[in-house]
Amino acid sequence: MADEVSVLVEGGKASGGPPLGPALGPLGVNVGQVVAAINKQTAQFQGMRVPVIVKVNPQTREFTLTVGRPPVAALLLKEAGKEKGSGKAKTEVAGDVTLAAVKKIAEAKGDDLFGRTIEEKMNQVIGTCVSLGLTVEGKDPRTVLRERLGTTAKAAL
C-alpha cells in the first residue's frame, strides 16, 4: 500500500519547505527529486496553484506524481491578466475574457467539468466568470449565457 501526500503548490515553484518537505521527509523519499519532478510537471501553470498527489512506495521509496489541473477560476484570471477577481462581482468588473479563452479552458479542464458537450462545459466556465466579476467579450456573463442558452433558460437566470 502506497503512502500518499496531497498538496497545493504554485506551478513551477514547489520547494522542500512546508507543506511538502515535512510531509515527505518521514516517508524516506528524496525530497529534492520529488520537488524537481513537481516543478518540471507544473511549469506551464506558472503563477497558479496546482493540486499534486505524491504516492510513495514504502518498500522501494519510489514515488509517482499525479498533477491535477488548476481551478477554473485560476485559469480565467490568468486569461484576463488579473491576480484576483472582483470583491463585488455583481457591481464591479475585474476584467474581460474572450469566448475563445472560455472554450480553451473548458477543453483543458475536460472531465473535471460537468456537462456532456463542450458547449455545456463552456457554460459552466462562463458561470464562474459571474462570481469572479469578469465580462465575456465585454458583456455581462449572464447575458452571454442567456444568448447561448436561448429563450428557454431566460426564466432560470
CATH topology of the largest domain, anyone?
Arc Repressor Mutant, subunit A
Q: Which architecture name of the largest domain does CATH use?
A: Orthogonal Bundle
Under CATH, the homologous superfamily of the largest domain reads Ribosomal protein L11/L12, C-terminal domain
Shape: elongated
Strand segment count: 5
Return the structural class: alpha+beta
Summed up, the helix count is: 6
* Count of spatially separate domains: 2
Largest sheet data: 3 strands, antiparallel
The level of helicity is 25-40%
Q: What is the topology, as strand order, of the major beta sheet? A: 1-2-3
Summary keywords:
157 residues; alpha+beta; Ribosomal protein L11, N-terminal domain; Arc Repressor Mutant, subunit A; 2 domains; 6 helices
